[in-house]
Amino acid sequence: MTTTKPPPRLYTVIFPIEGSGSGQRVLLGLKKRGMGKGLWNGFGGKLEPGETLDDCAHRELQEECGLEAKDLCYVGVLFMICSHHDDLTIFVYTARDLVGSVVESDEMAPQWFTTDKLPYDGCHREARLWWPTMLNGSLFVARFVFTQDDCIQHNIEHVDRARLTQLLSQPGP
Ligand SMILES: Nc1[nH]c(=O)nc2c1ncn2[C@H]1C[C@H](O)[C@@H](COP(=O)(O)OP(=O)(O)OP(=O)(O)O)O1
């Protein structure tokens, strides 16, 4: 008997960024509960019913670190194909022109990092493969294949804005 996998679960992840060049800093959060507990990541979560991805990104940013972004930019998509649980599709945003004060939430303990000192050893194992692309300002689609223990395949494609926009309505690898 063959079992059909459910469609991927949809998420956002948002990276607040300040400055540029060697002075560029990224706000990461140390996840305090649930998926990715104990790891540094951007802020984000599940797309709620009736919400657009942009709405979800604004909401998660505010809920998880107290910030509002006047310049929220959709920059990439991660297709996570997993042998051990449902697949995930994660829409990646950068957030600039930030308003408000950074606050710790139930879910995340935030901390600024300069981009040459990112805590890759304490992040999801594939972060080091695609964060540099995001931080360079490229638009991208990344695909990762995971077993329970490892990322066994990956591919990062640079795309244009039209392709990224198309993936908002037809999110498939
Ligand atoms: N392998 C992975 N690599 C990565 O870079 N980000 C991942 C990842 N797996 C999950 N994420 C991100 C997606 C999303 O931003 C976050 C997980 O979201 P959560 O499960 O915390 O969702 P919610 O904030 O909606 O949860 P609750 O409020 O606890 O229901 O982690």
Automatic annotation (TrEMBL):
Record keywords: Hydrolase, Magnesium, Metal-binding, Nucleus
Q: Where in the cell is it found?
A: Nucleus
Q: Name one Pfam family in it.
A: NUDIX
E.C. designation(s): 3.6.1.56
Record-level GO cellular component terms: cytoplasm; nucleus
- Residue ranges occupied by any Nudix hydrolase domain in the UniProt entry: 7-136
- Top enzyme category: hydrolase
Q: Which cofactors are required for activity?
A: Mg(2+)
Any GO BP = DNA protection
Its primary localisation, in coarse terms, equals: nucleus
Q: Which residues cross the membrane?
A: none
Molecular function GO labels: 8-oxo-7,8-dihydroguanosine triphosphate pyrophosphatase activity; dATP diphosphatase activity; metal ion binding
**What is catalysed by this protein?**
N(6)-methyl-dATP + H2O = N(6)-methyl-dAMP + diphosphate + H(+); 2-oxo-ATP + H2O = 2-oxo-AMP + diphosphate + H(+); N(6)-methyl-ATP + H2O = N(6)-methyl-AMP + diphosphate + H(+); O(6)-methyl-dGTP + H2O = O(6)-methyl-dGMP + diphosphate + H(+)
What is its quaternary makeup? Monomer.
The record's function comment reads:
Oxidized purine nucleoside triphosphate hydrolase which is a prominent sanitizer of the oxidized nucleotide pool. Catalyzes the hydrolysis of 2-oxo-dATP (2-hydroxy-dATP) into 2-oxo-dAMP. Also has a significant hydrolase activity toward 2-oxo-ATP, 8-oxo-dGTP and 8-oxo-dATP. Through the hydrolysis of oxidized purine nucleoside triphosphates, prevents their incorporation into DNA and the subsequent transversions A:T to C:G and G:C to T:A. Also catalyzes the hydrolysis of methylated purine nucleoside triphosphate preventing their integration into DNA.
Family of this protein: Belongs to the Nudix hydrolase family.
Name assigned to this protein? Oxidized purine nucleoside triphosphate hydrolase
Q: Which gene encodes it?
A: NUDT1
